Amino acid sequence: MALSTSSNFAKPDDAFRMIVEAHRGLDDAQSGDLDAALVLILANHIGDIGVLRDAITLAKRQVIEAVQPSQQ
């Protein structure tokens, strides 16, 4: 199975909103714990180490580029 990077949601804005709303009322530590728990639950659901590896690589690249955007 290859990592899918296009939206698989019929309503992607609803999915994004649901994740944002899940953090409402949580402090920073609880919010981080929620993110970590969600990642582990979804990684287990995927169940494919190769897809997980690709997702980690992509996510890490996006985080690094957000902090240090490339010079154009």
Word description of this protein:
The protein is mainly α. It has one domain. Helices cover 68% and strands 0% of the residues. The chain is built from three helices and no strands. It has helices at residues 12-22, 28-46, 49-67. The longest helix is centred in the middle third of the chain and has 19 residues, at 28-46. The protein is globular and about 35 Å long. The mean pLDDT is 93.
How do the helices and strands line up, and which of them pair or pack?
Elements: H1 12-22, H2 28-46, H3 49-67
Q: Shape from CA axes?
A: globular
Main pleated-sheet profile: none
Care to count the β-strands? Answer: 0
Order of helices and strands: HHH
- Proportion of beta-strand residues: under 5%
Instruction: Domain count, please report it.
Output: 1
Q: Which stretches of 5+ consecutive residues score pLDDT under 50? A: none
Discrete helix count:
3
Helix content: 55-70%
Structural class estimated from helices and strands: mainly alpha
Q: Termini distance?
A: 34 Å
On the 0 to 100 scale, the average pLDDT is: 93
Oligomer: single chain
| Rounded Rg | 14 Å
